[in-house]
Amino acid sequence: MTKLLSIMFLMIFTENYVLVQFLGICPFLGVSKKFDSAIGMTGAVVFVMTLASAVTWLIYTYVMAPAGLGYLQTIVFILVIAALVQFVEIFLKKYAKGLYQALGIYLPLITTNCIVLAATIQNIDNSYTFLQSCVNGLSAGIGFGVALIIFCGVRAALENAKPPKCFEGLPITMVAAALTSVTFMGFTGMAENLFH
Amino acid sequence: MKRKMQILLNGIFKENPVLILVLGCCSALAISVTVLGSLGMGAALTFVLVGSNIVISALRKVIPDKVRIPCYIIVVATFVTLVQMVVEAYVPTLHKSLGIFLPLIVVNCIVLGRAEMFANKNTIGDALFDGIGMGIGYTMVLTAMAIVRELFGAGSLFGKQIIPEEYTVRILAQTPGGFFMFGLVMAILVWGLAKHGKKFEPKMGCDGDCGGCGSADNCSEKEAKNV
Questions:
Q1: Which residues 15-44 of B are in CB contact (within 8 Å) with A?
Q2: Complex ipTM, two decimals?
Q3: Within-domain flag for B210
Q4: Which of A53, B11, B59, B66 is at 20 to 30 A from A195, Cα to Cα?
């Protein structure tokens, strides 16, 4: 239990994928303009990441590892994720109209989102158990959401700012992201002290 | 030959993948901590890019249009797996310092982006030069950022200590430094171009400018904007 809580805390705060590990920067910058789309993207990412963690763990442990196919990890995982996203989209469209309308438009974006592949590879690298992998996927998704939503607020404030001419647009957004990530540095080392 | 040179230079300057197209910034920000790591990552990406560009360009009449993205992903993933094996076997230190970003070349938007924007419309020779040019462009930006970050953040260059550690700006070598450096480099570029009377507004690939994005076809961000 402590291990699960520690994974959650690590993935959401200390080792936050976006603001500490530089993963998923593209959607972080692309979707953080509007609060609604940030929420939608977060929902889709949490959903797909948890599912992908579970599926890839099962495939790796019960099919690839016994057959000695560990070296095919990258190819198999990216295909599984792509297929999974496609499948989830079709399934939601047919059976869960409401959810599809909320998340549907963000689903295709996720295939090329590096955090999903990163989470599934890390599950295997850290030799997590099935439950730990699922929690890792779930909390990494939540961590992505936390970063996205915080940055959404920062960007809203940025709209009214008047930076020097050459910093307008993306450059000042990157500087703002730097300052946001400074706040996350405050969590460094907290997990070790909390869960021991 | 003149056209080939033009394609090559295009990737390095006019359409620099990191600064102008703003693709693949995850790895650019994360790896640019050390100069050696940047050069290694640049070499790995260039190899994957050249390989996938050639194969995709050769197969451009064979791959059906509807399933082209999964096909591209398989081609790219194959080259990435190759690089992973070679690096792990011969340069284990590099393998350790690149970590997760090596397998993540698969989802690096530069590779898929060039496949979609260039390789599937051009001949093998052109695609080869495009791959080399883009690879050099990527490596150059990474190395430039890494020189500043390593020298002032860790006080070293190529792993050799130059500035004593007490006098370094340690934050440059950490996450915030990556974002800040990238913003700064972009601002300098905008400022420099403005001096020569050229206007340039850096935009994210999915900021509505879908022509500059490899996943534009897979992407519903356009629709999201209209909703």
A1: 22, 25-27, 29-30
A2: 0.84
A3: no
A4: A53
d(CA A33, CA A170) in angstroms, rounded, equals: 12
Q: Does residue B70 belong to the interface with chain A, where contact is any CB pair within 8 Å?
A: yes
The CA distance from A132 to A126, in Å, is: 10
- pTM of the entire predicted model: 0.84
Number of H helices, E strands in chain B: 9, 2
In a domain, B90, yes or no: yes
Written as one letter, the residue type at A188 is: T
φ and ψ at residue B193, rounded to 5 degrees: -70, -35
Return the pLDDT at B209.
42
Q: Which of residues 164-203 of B touch A (CB under 8 A)?
A: 171, 174-180, 182-184, 186-188, 190-191, 194, 201-203
In a domain, B213, yes or no: no
pLDDT digit string, tens, across residues B214-223: 444 444 444 4
Residue spans per domain, chain A:
33-143
- Domain range spanning residue B128? 2-160+169-199
Element (H, E) at B160: strand B160-161
> Alpha-carbon distance A81 to A153, whole Å?
31
Contacts of A172 in chain B (CB under 8 A): 183, 187
Please indicate, yes or no, if residue B77 is contained in any of the structural domains. yes
